[in-house]
Amino acid sequence: MATTEDYTTWTSESLISRIHALESALGPTQVPTTAASPAPGKFKKPPKAPKPFNASRYSTRLIALKFAYLGGAYNGFEHHANNSTPLPTVEEVLWRALRKVRLIFPEFPEGKTAGHGRDEQEEVCWEGVEYSKCGRTDKGVSAFGQVVGLRVRSARPLAQAKVLASTGADEKDLKEMQDEAAMDDVPPDDSTSKELPFDMVKDELPYIQLLNRVLPSDIRILAWCPNLPPNFSARFNCRERRYRYFFTNPAFAPLPGNEAQQGSGWLDIEAMQSAAKKYEGLHDFRNFCKIDASKQIENFERRIFNAGIHRVEAEDQPASLVGVGAEANGGLGEQLSTSIPQLHWFEVRGSAFLWHQVRHLMAVLFLVGQGWEQPELVDQLLDVSTTPGRPVYDMASDVPLVLWDCIFPDPERVRQADHAGDGEVSHAGGYEDGLDWIYVGDSEGGQDRAKKNPPGVEDGKYGRGGVMDDLWVLWRQRKMEEILAGSLMNVVRRQGKPSRLCDVDFALKSDRVYDGSELPRTVGTYNYVMQRERMESPDIVNARYAARKGLQYPRPRAAATDDTGN
Hints:
Alpha-Beta Plaits, globular, 13 helices, 12 strands
């Protein structure tokens, strides 16, 4: 039996010599690798490089997209090149989704290479896409009816698209050509005979579903428009924009026993409604916006079609979306509409808006609703002859603001209404949308025909993977947070002895001003708006900027510029 060497007594030199001797005896050996060998059946092929996408093999068409987004997770809508932001912009996220599903083929500047939509570092570029956008929302602001126009890939056969381009015909003309050929019993041209049966809506790509699959759940495509007017621009063809600003009454937790005091948290809705109606009509809103000298805007007149305060009723609650209204649930709707705190919204409809105009309009309404100001403050701020510069006041918070809808009326309707001057002919209530929108779930053009689902199971709006499921998840998460926070407030309210704050002299307390945020601001003693320091008039601000930049001021006569940033 072999004996085991006791190496503990060996010196270092002896041990090294022993190792060399053993290595020589064994011969050359292969050093084992540290990487674990793949388990049987678990071998993974290396990912293949994406195949180059030949855009020239596909036809394109100009469409409009209507979509919604919750703005809390985004740094506003508009993307600015070479301007990094802490949060992504909605426009950038939309662009990357369009590139990922290969719907757009931008013409990148020389030296910039396309990443086929797979490269997250690919710079946003709209060149060659005929892109236009309706409105720009600021950081935190949401939109439920934002619209963009752009040229996208189509399922229409390329030969047919070339025929349309060469003849100057549109989709409607194509169908008429097909019908006439059938009626006259004339065989169609060989180059188009195979493509004529293509339906421009039924046989088109499912644009809504393609994009919603790759977009985050807080951005949803709602509709697309296949037939646009000639030279369509989402910005200039839009003749009315509608904004809503949501708030509660009370606006914040009121102190017990002080409900009738100014700044207690309770809002006078009737006073706010009276002030809101004063916004309607054609006015100079220089005192209800933020001045951007770089734009050199000289005309601050804007027409407001309608403005008012509305209460959120039962049919506006999410319960009504699933058929749980007053009729379906034995009076639940009435309970929803009369619950405390009450929910309200301020709606304003206009042709165009100045920078931060809606948030300034709302800020003044909050001051009136809290009793700090009277509705006549609106008249004073609109009178630019006596108030050429805006008094210093803070605009309302951005979070509760929503770009509710963008309206594209029929051109004939626009010609019949006078919105440019103060003539007797005026469409005070606003316009009706004239675009032929195809909404998600519509039987023609609103569903993914490639999905073989039996009728009644899902349609892209309801059912598995539908938009309503996505939005329900977002709503329910926030609803659970609301219920938990509300229940906690009730627990704290019932604990301990009754509060004695109602016995404290209100004159000793600091005034509180609400601006739409979670909590009011303490301001010491409230100072009336018309008694505050005035800012410089827009003329002075513009002239100083023009002199610094070497620009001519005033500029040659030009059309008023809408900023539509709120």
